[in-house]
Amino acid sequence: MTDAAATDVTQAQDDDRVEATDADRVEAPEIELQARPVLVVDFGAQYAQLIARRVREANVYSEVVPHSMPVAEMLAKDPAAIVLSGGPSSVYEEGAPSLDPALLKGGVPVFGMCYGFQAMVQALGGTVAKTGLGEYGATPARVTDTASVLFNGQPDEQSVWMSHGDSVTGAPEGMRVTASTAGAPVAAFEDDERRLYGVQWHPEVMHSTFGQRVLENFLWRGAGIEGDWTAANVVDELVEAIRQQVGESRVLCALSGGVDSSVAAALVQKAVGDQLTCVFVDHGLLRAGEAEQVEKDFVDATGVDLVVVDAKDQFLSALAGVSDPEEKRKIIGREFIRVFEQAARDIVGEHRGDNDHPVEFLVQGTLYPDVVESGGGTGAANIKSHHNVGGLPEDLQFKLVEPLRSLFKDEVRQVGLELGVPEGIVWRQPFPGPGLGIRIVGDVTAERLEVLRAADAIAREELTAAGLDRDIWQCPVVLLADVRSVGVQGDGRTYGHPIVLRPVSSEDAMTADWTRVPYDVLAKISTRITNEVREVNRVVLDVTSKPPGTIEWE
Ligand SMILES: Nc1ncnc2c1ncn2[C@@H]1O[C@H](COP(=O)(O)OP(=O)(O)OP(=O)(O)O)[C@@H](O)[C@H]1O
Ligand SMILES: O=c1[nH]c(=O)c2[nH+]cn([C@@H]3O[C@H](COP(=O)(O)O)[C@@H](O)[C@H]3O)c2[nH]1
Ligand SMILES: NC(=O)CC[C@H](N)C(=O)O
Ligand SMILES: [Mg+2]
């Protein structure tokens, strides 16, 4: 299940850590889709993006907006409907985010969940109070009208996921109460005339048995939305939005050969064809065989116009002596941009005479998780600065083209399949842009990279041989360069470094669990790494989920 809980993990104070500041916060996406959106108003919820995602699963386009956005601005987006999220506050407290009653009078269908439900009640003149009857987790609900818009055709007893301490003690006038629980006599209400609906629970989490059905009923029946938004529509809309944004300008695409940039490149290719040049940076932090694979196999499979830049020395010298993860990420983000700037100058030079248009735009395969982890969500904490978002330098001259910025990886894979991107690329495991640079705990040197590359190649080879590639989301292999332990090899003492295996299963990288790789496969990897990589005398397995751990160690 997806959730944004990871972004809420409080970071331990550490004087050596490069602190994330407000300056790290990132701007809203530049590309906007043309379908009328369903706006998810975020009241500080754990699950705002999850709601948006569930709306898209109902084939309706959706975007998250902060509760602080003025109503006029929300209505200016011409929303097809509005969903109000949950949130940690209590509506009757001073300073709690409130709902402007004007939003409920704009003629747009509205659906409130939990805090959003309570905020509707307050705005409509009902009452909310702390009753001492909080409900947390799976809760039996009684539906009192199984023919209503929300509950049509559903059983009159269903299990819903609750997380509330406050309850509605007085329903607003004109609202029909259609469900109740022990702690929330008013657990759902509906008003078909004003097209206002709400539930006290969280239909967006999979533990609410009929959650998706309730949401779909609101969207399709209550709001009368067609539900025709599919990967095919999104391709058309994104292509059109890219054309609008880019015009006649030349465009560079930062292409890693990974899923996201390949799909982004395919979209831009479709939109502005020969205005596009892809740039792949070999920063010396790649895995064994990767540069060759992108240079040859990728071009063979897609036919893109690709420039490969060898920037190994530039990155390694910029990273020399740096061990702080955030500092590494910012250096890598900056050096990437410096490489793209140079490439832009070279490309303009090449085309001088037949093309006067400078390279104004840089395409990146940024996804929503990159944005939210970099602190770009509504009030979300900075967990780590992804090189392509929070790691961008302040003096960035390019305008960014990031068509996938509000999507999750599994949605991007659907878009990729729709575009005909080869399956071998669509189903590739993710590999982070900062590469092995954030898998060496300690500073990055050419020698350490060699060690890690050798261990990583063995782990990948054995996991592939065991047929586990599609079961595993990705398996970072991490070198603890500043840790040494004693071993005995060939009857002699060794004092080597540990390698950590971090196989994880996930749907979208927002949450993850460690993969139960069979012991015999782990044994083989361990034996081979310790036999074949001289500097390593110990292999350990990371058995932490996300949260609390992140997938990468840095
Ligand atoms: N070596 C590289 N050369 C050029 N651009 C890169 C490189 N590595 C990353 N990027 C850029 O940074 C973006 C973010 O990297 P990220 O790893 O999240 O995505 P990806 O590599 O496209 O897909 P995946 O998540 O499947 O690895 C990429 O989409 C791409 O635009
Ligand atoms: O392109 C990227 N630039 C980055 O700076 C970066 N940091 C993490 N990752 C990848 O993002 C996903 C979530 O990773 P974490 O759980 O470690 O935050 C995982 O798939 C990670 O591999 C990155 N990708
Ligand atoms: N999850 C929520 O939206 C909770 C709403 C409110 N804070 C309550 O406890 O009732
Ligand atoms: Mg990648």
UniProtKB/TrEMBL annotation:
Database matches in InterPro entries: Class_I_gatase-like (IPR029062), GATASE (IPR017926), GMP_synth_C (IPR001674), GMP_synth_GATase (IPR004739), GMP_synthase (IPR022955), GMPS_ATP_PPase_dom (IPR025777), NAD/GMP_synthase (IPR022310), Rossmann-like_a/b/a_fold (IPR014729)
Region (Disordered) residue spans: 1-21
Domain GMPS ATP-PPase: 229-428
Cellular compartments per GO CC: cytosol
Keywords: ATP-binding, Glutamine amidotransferase, GMP biosynthesis, Ligase, Nucleotide-binding, Purine biosynthesis
Biased composition (Low complexity): 1-12
Protein known as: GMP synthase [glutamine-hydrolyzing]
Lineage: Bacteria, Bacillati, Actinomycetota, Actinomycetes, Micrococcales
